[in-house]
Description:
Blueprint: H1 5-27, H2 52-60, H3 65-68, H4 74-86, H5 89-94, H6 96-99, H7 106-111, E1 118-119, H8 122-126, E2 140-144, E3 162-168, E4 190-201, E5 207-216, E6 221-223, H9 245-248, H10 257-275, H11 283-298, E7 329-333, E8 339-343, E9 356-357, H12 365-373, H13 376-388, E10 400-401, E11 409-415, E12 421-428, E13 436-442, E14 450-456, H14 471-482, H15 493-498, H16 500-510, H17 520-523, H18 530-544, H19 551-562, E15 571-578, E16 584-590, H20 593-600, E17 604-610, E18 618-626, E19 631-640, H21 645-663, H22 670-673, E20 679-682, H23 686-699, E21 706-707, E22 710-714, H24 720-724, E23 728-730, H25 732-740, H26 748-756, H27 766-774, H28 778-790, H29 794-798, H30 807-812, H31 818-828, H32 836-860, H33 871-896
Parallel strand pairs: 2-3, 17-20, 20-23
Antiparallel strand pairs: 1-2, 3-14, 4-5, 5-13, 6-10, 6-12, 7-8, 8-9, 11-12, 13-14, 15-16, 16-19, 17-18, 18-19, 21-22
Amino acid sequence: MLLSDAQRVAIRKAQLVLEAAVETVNGLGVVSTTFPSPPYHFPHSPIVSNNPSDRTQALRSFPTLSGSLPQPSSAVWLSLSDLSAHTSDTALTDDPAIDSNPLLGAKSAFDYDPPAARHFTDAEIAAKANCLNQKSRVNALIDHPLGAIVEYPETGAHPDERVAHRFQVDPVKFRHPKADFQYSLGDKHGGHKDVHCFLLWDTNGNDVLCDHVQTSCKGLKICSQCPHSTSHIQHSFVSRKTLPASTTLSAPSSSHAEEEVFMKTLGFACALKDRGCAFEADDDTIDADLEVDDEDDGGGSDEKDFGEFVVYDARTRRPARDLHCRGQIILRGNKFGRSYVQCEHYEPRTRRAHLVLQNLDEYNIPYLAALLADDPVHIREHEQGALEQGYGPLMACSFMASPSEQKAYCSNWHRNSDGELQQGVLRRWSNSCPTIYDIYVPQDLHACPQVVVVSRHPHSHPPPLPVKTPGAFVELFKSLLLELDWKLADATPRRILLDSAFMAGLRRKMEWTGRRDPVLSDLHPSLGNLDHVRRYINALRAEHFPAGTGFEGARLLVHEHENLPPDEQYVRCAEKQVDSGGKEFSFVICMLRAMSLQLMTARRLSIDTSFKRLHGWEEFEIETWDSNSKRSVIGVRAFTTSQSADAHFALIKRIFEIASTDTSRPVQFLHIHGEGFEAWVADAHKGQALGVGRYCKYLARDLTTYSPRDPSRLLRNLTPYDHLKQFYRVCVTHFKRNVHELRGIVSNDVQAAMLSIASSEPHVDLEGTFAVIRNGGKKAKAWLRDKLETNKFVLPALYHPASLIPLAIWKGITLSTNSAEQQHHNIYRDGVNLTILAGIIRGMQYDWRAIASIDIYHTTGIHHRDQPATYLFRITRSIKRHGERICFFESVKKNSQ
Length: 897
């Protein structure tokens, strides 16, 4: 017979009185049984402790509770009387023990290991303490404190045995306990609303209405080559710390050399059969393939020999696959006896665009030949031998995965019963798992912040691997990622572990005190999978940067920066344009107003392009020298997807439109306006130079005056090359480096002639020098033609007598773009191969630091280094480095002799 609500309330009040009495007795020095008081108790049973031993002791004392206590003194009776007088229904809700939930600390949550279920005693069963509802009973109970993470809830060890898990939950930030289960649930669904669970009640001891859901375990997915007899495998209680070793090891840690060679050969052959030639096929090859396919479709038997090499790919074939060569891969040998594989359509002279692989030293050639030739006899011989040694495609597979994993295929290849070599297909476990879960969630979690999960029947399969990250760990990991702020734009699993702020937060959250830094798998084993971690990062990045980290993300930054104060605006422009050839290109311009001022007040500029900082973009910088602070300064940082002249013209035009607006200064060149930019230095890139020249022509388009340095011509009639001749210089360091790369191809005399062209003084015999170069061979002749005809701006940019730049200006500008390259090198330390958004934000931080350093000098006179970079300091350092370099090469030369 079940107790009524009034009886349960009375029992609860009696419990409080008894607990107070015990505390009073203990305070008087009398030894008695200890009854720890959790916030919510069984309405049908005595106190339930979080400590299993205390809880069992207390429950076992229930039948003789009064006899287990000593006779209290008069003082004790007075205390009891006072307590009884003040006890009421409202007093129950005011009890601090009831209002406070047992909460695990962060470290305890990581280390929480659920205790074994406590079975009900005969006395508790007699008192109906094990009643789940009017019809069902539970055999055992586990109370989990608030914050506990249970991944493998214990279930009944025998059929129809029920284990109840009672979870303390946060009613405000409710997270369902079943979300942490490693078992996949959902094969069977059912349930009811407005039901009662006698293991749940409110603070007054009254039943609460619950939503009941019944579901079942979905078991595991196993490879199609796994043994079918699995009925002997079952479990009912396991934790992450006690997972069987056999389920956590998918392969031996090492293998014999013969096995390594065999498996490598098998993988190579499968890759060849799967991918084929993969080169873009010509018309003849496509026609030949179609003819072969038609013949194959018209005849032949459906039956296949054991050795027939049929490969079923795990991926869906794309229609575009038909546009590639489908020629058969064959094994051949050359005249030296070395084996190689090639596409059947490959011809050394006429059809070279087909697969040829010649380095096969690490493979088992006889086995590879048998696989590629579909030789069933030799295939059987090799694979049967491997089977006897415990490996190969004939071996039974032990691969398994949780249904929650997005996997449809085994990672191994097997021979099926028809002799076909195929990738193992994952199928459901042969025996459906009988484990059933009954879940009771109160409709008012504030009145009863608990959830009961009852599981029955043992699982009929091994426990799944801990591949699912519990929600608490996911929230913790995401909170650490959000602390990265803008660094989230280019966060990767490796970069976040190298970030000191992320690591400090991880240590703090985990209360880590070890000498080594924690890794993410110390938080949870599932985070040892870097692809799994990357998915969490990508998902959070998509939320944090809704426009993405590409061009659209940069465009969004432009709109955001437009609303900032003018001095804080950095991302100024993100545009797409089409060049004269109809090809679309994009560019992004980044500059602070302070950078605009540096750019517009400069006389001499250096421009350089970096190709490795961003993925799919080039970084374009215009750099100048601040003579006051004695340091190199970036005037503008831009990103572009094109190196054409059209793209550079559009980019430079927009840069100076922004800079002119920022500073209210017009863009002026000395050779056009009589003041302004005197000279620019850059590398010998034609698109870059021609884009700059076209911009000068654009500036002079409406001028009716004559050129000061070429009085016979109007400024508006000058071509881009004419403008470049009057202010543009090529980096001598790049020029010499390219000449030195011809060492061994051209003679020393030809090299010397090439280097002599870069000069500020008239050449003794310029035409004779050109003749020496022309007669220096094919490479030398092509080199000279490039300088005189293809890139007509190069010779005037290297040889002063061929230019119209005044000699003082020629010598006044630096000979190289080393300072601009050093700026690129400095920012490389902040990261390379970044997304456009990450490159922008990291560049913004770098440029803010640089401008702040210059501002400090202007306001306080403090340099950013002990030794200011004066001419004396820089020249001395250059000579020293030159000497060290010469000594190094001489020592290498001496040691090589």
